[in-house]
Backbone:
C-alpha cells in the first residue's frame, strides 16, 4: 500500500491540491513515455534481431556460391604490401580460372612462403572475384543477440535522455512561472513598488 502511494506521488497521480497543472502534465507525459518504451522496445529489439538473422542468412546463401580455385603467382611484385592485421599474408599479383571458365588476374592474398610460379588456393565468388575465406554459420548468425542487446541499450539510453530533456524543459517552465508569480506578488510582500 505504501509503495503504491509513493508511486502515485512520483507520477503525480495523487490528489494533492498543491500540485500545479504543469506537474500533472509532466507526470502524464512521463507515464506516456514509459508506456511507449515498454510497448515499443520489445518490438524494435525483435525487429533488430530479425534483421541481423536475415542478413546472416543472406551472407550464408551468398557464401554457398563461392568456390575454391588454384591461383598461380606468375612473377614477384617489387613492393609487396602486407595486409593489415595479418603479418604472414602479403598481396601478390596472381592468375586463376573463374568457375565459369574465364581466366582472371588480380591481387590475391598469399602467405609469404608462396614464391613465383607456385600456386595458392583462393576463394572466389561466382563471377570469379576473390572473396576471402567463408565465415562459419555461427559467426554469421551470432550477430543476432548482439543486435538485440545493442538495440535495447540504445533504446534505454534514448529513453533516459528523453526523460532528462523533458525534466529540464519542465523545470525551466516551472521556474519561469515562479519568476512571473514572484514579480507579481513580491512587491506586495516587501513593500517595494
Residues:
Amino acid at each position: 500500500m505504501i509503495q503504491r502511494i509513493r508511486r502515485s506521488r512520483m507520477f503525480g497521480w495523487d490528489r494533492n491540491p498543491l500540485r500545479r497543472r504543469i506537474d500533472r502534465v509532466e507526470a502524464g507525459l512521463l507515464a506516456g513515455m514509459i508506456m511507449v518504451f515498454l510497448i515499443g522496445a520489445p518490438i524494435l529489439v525483435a525487429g533488430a534481431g530479425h534483421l541481423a538473422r536475415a542478413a546472416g542468412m543472406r551472407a550464408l546463401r551468398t557464401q554457398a556460391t563461392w568456390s575454391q580455385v588454384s591461383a598461380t603467382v606468375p612473377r614477384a611484385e617489387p613492393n609487396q604490401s602486407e595486409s593489415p592485421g595479418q603479418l604472414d599474408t602479403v598481396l601478390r599479383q596472381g592468375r586463376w580460372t573463374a568457375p565459369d571458365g574465364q581466366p582472371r588476374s588480380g591481387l590475391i592474398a598469399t602467405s609469404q612462403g608462396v614464391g613465383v610460379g607456385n600456386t595458392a588456393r583462393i576463394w572466389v565468388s561466382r563471377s570469379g572475384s576473390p572473396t576471402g575465406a567463408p565465415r562459419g554459420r555461427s559467426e554469421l548468425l551470432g550477430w543476432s543477440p548482439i543486435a538485440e542487446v545493442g538495440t535495447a541499450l540504445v533504446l534505454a539510453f534514448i529513453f533516459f535522455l528523453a526523460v532528462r530533456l523533458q525534466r529540464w524543459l519542465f523545470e525551466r517552465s516551472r521556474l519561469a512561472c515562479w519568476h512571473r508569480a514572484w514579480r507579481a506578488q513580491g512587491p506586495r510582500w516587501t513593500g517595494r513598488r
Remarks:
- The two ends are 50 Å apart (CA to CA).
- The first strand starts at residue 67 and ends at 72.
